[in-house]
Amino acid sequence: MIFVTVGTHEQQFNRLLSEVDRLKQEGVIRTNVVMQSGYSDYVPAACEHYRMMTPKQMEQHMKAADIVITHGGPGSIFGALKEFKIPIVVPRRVDFKEHVDMHQVEFTKHLHLKGQILPVYEIHELENNILRYEDRIRELKSGFQGRENRKAFVQELKSIVDRLLEV
């Protein structure tokens, strides 16, 4: 199962939902897809979807998922890492009216350099990341520390958020 979350930010993230839905409709994705669609107005045709989920439901879906695809929000990314999943991260962008600034792109770049996520900066890159997920994970495994690195991750996250709030 693939679990997709766009978080709870009040702006749409149709770009991610429509691309995953397209890949499912075209048979590129052959497994079940569950989406948390948030404030998006795109209605998936081929994927199970819920506007919002409780924290417990989110945790259950992340645990059950073979692949987690998430926006670039720290809460969703950390939720996947907590379940020992290396997420595919598609950051929201201001130029698509998905967020108020580019902080998700910056946060995604930071985590990518640490080897903790698979980033997708352009939506056409998503298909390859899904199809090559296992290969991509093997490439990153040496840098992924899971729970052992939680304290360092939280400290680094706090530092990034503090820097972003200073702007």
UniProtKB/TrEMBL annotation:
Pfam families: Glyco_tran_28_C. GO terms for molecular function: hexosyltransferase activity. Coiled coil: none annotated. Keywords: Endoplasmic reticulum, Glycosyltransferase, Transferase. GO terms for biological process: dolichol-linked oligosaccharide biosynthetic process. It is found in: Endoplasmic reticulum. Residues 1-141 form the Glycosyl transferase family 28 C-terminal domain. Belongs to the glycosyltransferase 28 family. This is Multidrug MFS transporter. It comes from Paenibacillus albilobatus. The gene is cpsG.
